[in-house]
Amino acid sequence: MSFAYAGGLLATGLADVTSDVAALDSRGWWAVVVTYEGKVTCARFTDVRRAPHPEGMWAAPGEWSTSLDEAAYKAGVQRIRDEIADGVVYQANLCRVLSAKLPPRATIEGLGARLIRGNPAPHSMTVKLPGLEVACASPELYLARDGDVVESRPIKGTARTAAGLLPKDQAENVMIVDLVRNDLGRVAAVGSVEVPGLCEVEEHPGLVHLVSTVRARLAGGGWPKLIAATFPPGSVTGAPKSSAVELIGVLEPVPRGPYCGAIGWVDADSRRGALAVGIRSFWAEEGLLRFGTGAGITWGSDPLREWRETELKAARFMEVASGDGAGQDLAER
After folding, report:
1. Which Pfam families did the record assign (predicted)?
2. Is the alpha carbon torsion for 121, 292, 278, 40 positive or negative?
């Protein structure tokens, strides 16, 4: 059965699936998934109600492999530092995708339910559609909209505890805040872009993040114009965004898919919605379960520390998916 689950709401009764973002300004309640590469899926459901997350079977996936091993990832970090030295970028996000064989009896609803219990997150969402299955536990808001007011809450800076955050983390966050301000400025009313929160520490299971808030009032236009001005999210690309995206395309050997894209919901009737940055997300594809992890690279980055940050971000999710709470040491893969 197709369904979407977000914020305590269960959506069933699949009525329409489209790749046209303009549908989000029409009518009804929509689940939205946009891959990092820009493939759009908007699914309208007719029955949306308060309900628990659907339960389902789950079994531990097979051994995990990674699209970039430690040596390749550290080499990528150094390449980005070289590009920063040459003035090509100021920052770029380097990611890798983990993959494991998905057992036949495992279901995305089973994994989504495990994530809600084992790693609750402010923007958790599970989507099951023909050809698309995603279980997301994102802590990061890409875009929230309430009428003409839009808000983004970029995350940059990650450590086990607040004491472990470095000056590099704050500098990284401020760079991305400037980028998000510029992106929203393309569609905002003049003078309406503001930053009510800068580099605030947020605690999440197993780690802390630096989070900022950028808010604006739309000058006109709907979701197509807003997404076109801001996608892909700045926190998972870099600055300048166009140069960072080009560099990412050179360094990363596989598509990111829903990871680092947008995952969320839109209620077109009330002109409200919330799209998360598609981090901390599993997706099922071609008999495999995939999960992405990455880090923002600046001139102050240490390649080994950045590799370990990707490990830290993935570790708890490997434990949740493993089914036994033990997890695996990613450094041994």
Report:
1. Chorismate_bind
2. negative
Estimate to the nearest angstrom the gap between the alpha carbon of 175 and the chain centroid: 18
**What is the value of pTM for the model shown?**
0.94
Nearest Cα to Cα of residue 13 among 41, 43, 57, 51:
43
Helix/strand/coil for 161: coil
User: Residue 17: what residue type?
Assistant: V
pLDDT tens for each residue of 252-282: 999 999 999 999 999 999 999 999 999 999 9
SS3 of 163-219: HHCCHHHHHHHHHHHHHHHHHHHCCECCCCCEEEEEEEEEEECCEEEEEEEEEEEEC
In sequence order, which ranges of the chain are alpha helices (DSSP H)? 70-85, 108-118, 167-185, 223-230, 241-251, 303-322
Contacts of 46 (CB under 8 A, 6+ apart): 12, 13, 15, 28
d(CA 207, CA 141): 17
| CB burial readout 67-95, b (16+ within 10 A) else e | bbebeebbebbebbbebbeeeebbbbbbb
DSSP lists the bridge partners of residue 127 as 4, 134
Residues 6+ apart with CB under 8 A from 125: 4, 5, 6, 31, 134, 136, 138, 263, 264, 265, 276
Query: Helix, strand, or coil here: 19?
Result: coil
Backbone phi, psi, residue 27, to 5°: -155, 160
- Three-class SS of residue 40? strand
Tokens of 5: 């689950």
Tokens representing 140 are 């990061």
Domains of the chain: 3-324 (3.60.120.10)
R_g over Cα of the chain: 19
Q: Can you read off the two tokens belonging to residue 122?
A: 């402010």
